UniProtKB/TrEMBL annotation:
<dbReference type="InterPro" id="IPR009057">
    <property type="entry name" value="Homeodomain-like_sf"/>
</dbReference>
<dbReference type="Pfam" id="PF01527">
    <property type="entry name" value="HTH_Tnp_1"/>
</dbReference>
<protein>
    <submittedName>
        <fullName>Transposase</fullName>
    </submittedName>
</protein>
<dbReference type="InterPro" id="IPR036388">
    <property type="entry name" value="WH-like_DNA-bd_sf"/>
</dbReference>
<dbReference type="InterPro" id="IPR002514">
    <property type="entry name" value="Transposase_8"/>
</dbReference>
Amino acid sequence: MAPPKKYPDALRAHAVRLYRESDPKPTFRAMAADLGVHHEALRLWIRQAESEAVVVESGHCASVSEENKRLRKRIADFERVIATRRDSRPIRAAMCDRMPL
């Protein structure tokens, strides 16, 4: 079982949004002190949010985990098709051997 989270998700989202919208970018320590969180927690939240956002050619952002989920499903579909064809190959070969010429 995972340990309980020290900071709520709403605070995490708020902190990441504040960091992204601020110009110039504040230091992690200063911003963490303002929010009342540990500076390493803030740094990890921001780095994770940056790594999850991937710009797609169409211009909108997609989550890396969503993209991985979609690709895993596609791979599973391909593997299912390959297995079906591989399993039916001996049956087709046996049927062709019995067919009269």
